[in-house]
Design goal:
The chain is α/β, with parallel strands linked by helices. The protein contains 18 helices and 15 strands.
Length: about 475
């Protein structure tokens, strides 16, 4: 049932305007020619120019630990400061309002907020059911300090969160609202208007932007979340190990760090038992920064800006529409669907992340571990499992709260033991995600593989690989 790429391009409004990305892929992403990469929500893909720039910088100069005033140290400090400025410009954020705190990744940024946020009895942490586990973990800090934790579940086949339930959760108390701008499970894009809504109720807002910013513009002059975690490898592939927390300076001043480390203090006494934290964002940057890679973030930001976020957004939107249509068209010989979607079946208020399961001719879910095995053998990179987002998965598979509470604290030997208790045929879904240099051929390859591999046949369930950890 394959359809030629050329004919698909002709029927996708706006796609022809993105052909510059095909030229860029041919010039800078040649390593994608030998595989089909559809895991951009897991990680972006690096351009050859990024690697060249890194090598040229390190072979052309000497850089030292930033915590000094010597020439090599000052050179590193200067590049780190330039990266901070580039990041603020990327988000159109005023340096008077916002600061950039470098972290190892978005998870590190979430932990930084969780451990230092002034949770207390009478306060509240509001979490949407649709959150990455690195965000869900903040609840442990809140619970330990006596704050109330409220979860607002995802609802319906679209896996969205109802605004009325958000409003109800924000009533009465003050605290912290945490939600993703875009779901890493379903691609749902939650309203940025909730930021102002929560702040009007006296809440701070942590907006998880990790899955959103690779293909969407986040303008911090229009919306003003208090905390924004970002992982840069998800935006442009390289470097890994560098993320950041973009924080309003006013909100950053309210955090209370439970410890101090090298690089975070202005003054300290070992015998006197006192310390004074640095007066700026460096108070939150523990130890020595990844000073040899942070300058690569500036290069990556400039790289994306030169391409144009609007162009990337248009390309991802076109291909997401195509992927959804192609998957929906996959049928068994009796006309029954081959694919079951989780989340929106259209492109309204959604990103380029598509979650689904494969169905056999009887309408039963094919274990996603089988799809992981077969797609890997075919040279196709998709992701399978729960994607570290249990709330969205629980909503997608309609697992009752009663059933989930029934497994609390129970230790079972295998994943299949848990699936049996919950009455689930599979432990997760398949996720295909599009990004910066995805093309029509990638969509063709995936849909043709699914049609050939699972149309009108029941796969052998032997030789399953272990599930990835969440």
């Amino acid at each position: 049932m394959s359809v030629s790429s050329d004919s698909q391009v002709d029927v996708m409004p706006g796609y022809a305007e993105t052909r510059r990305l095909d030229e860029l892929r041919a010039a800078e992403y040649r390593h994608l020619d030998v595989q089909t990469y559809l895991d951009y929500t897991g990680a972006g893909v690096a351009a050859e120019a990024q690697i060249r720039a890194h090598a040229e910088r390190l072979t052309g100069h000497c850089y030292g630990n930033p915590h000094s005033e010597n020439p090599t140290s000052s050179a590193s400090t200067g590049l780190v400061d330039q990266a901070r400025e580039a990041i603020l410009a990327f988000f159109n954020a005023s340096p008077e309002e916002y600061a950039v705190v470098f972290t190892p990744n978005a998870s590190g940024a979430c932990r930084l907020v969780g451990e230092a946020y002034p949770f207390e009895r009478g306060g509240r942490l509001v979490l949407t059911g649709d959150n990455h586990n690195s965000v869900n973990g903040i609840r442990e800090f809140a619970k330990a300090r006596g704050a109330e934790v409220v979860h607002v579940p995802v609802r319906g086949p679209g896996l969205r969160v109802r605004e009325a339930e958000i409003r109800a959760a924000l009533g009465g108390r003050r605290g912290l609202l945490v939600y993703p701008a875009q779901s890493n499970f379903s691609g749902v894009q939650h309203p940025l208007s909730w930021i102002g809504l929560a702040q009007a109720h006296g809440y701070d807002v942590l907006l998880d932007a990790a899955a959103f910013v690779p293909a969407n513009r986040l303008d911090l002059s229009l919306v003003h979340p208090d905390f924004v975690p970002v992982s840069w490898y998800k935006v442009f592939g390289y470097p890994t190990g560098v993320g950041c927390l973009i924080a309003r300076r006013e909100a950053l001043a309210r955090l209370r760090r439970p410890w101090f480390a090298g690089g975070t203090i202005q003054a300290v006494s070992a015998l006197g038992g006192w310390h004074v934290l640095a007066p700026d964002e460096t108070a939150f940057e523990d130890g020595t920064l990844n000073f040899l890679s942070i300058p690569d973030v500036e290069f990556g930001v400039r790289w994306v800006e030169d391409i144009g976020m609007d162009l990337i957004h248009r390309r991802v939107g076109c291909l997401t529409s195509l992927l959804l249509r192609r998957l929906a068209d996959l049928r068994h010989s009796d006309g029954s669907p081959l694919i079951r979607f989780y989340g929106p079946d259209g492109t309204d208020r959604r990103g380029g992340t598509v979650a689904f399961n494969v169905l056999d001719p009887r309408g039963r879910i094919v274990d996603e571990r089988i799809v992981a095995r077969d797609s890997a053998a075919a040279g196709i990179s998709v992701r399978t499992g729960c994607f570290c987002n249990p709330g969205a998965g629980e909503g997608a598979f309609e697992i009752s709260e009663h059933a989930l509470r029934g497994t609390a604290g129970r230790r079972m030997r295998t994943l299949d033991d848990y699936l049996g208790v919950l009455g689930l045929p599979s432990g997760g879904a398949v996720r295909a995600s599009l990004g910066l240099v995805s093309n029509v051929a990638d969509v063709d390859r995936l849909t043709e593989f699914l049609d050939a591999a699972y149309g009108d046949r029941e796969p052998n369930a032997t030789g399953l690989k272990p599930r990835e950890r969440c």
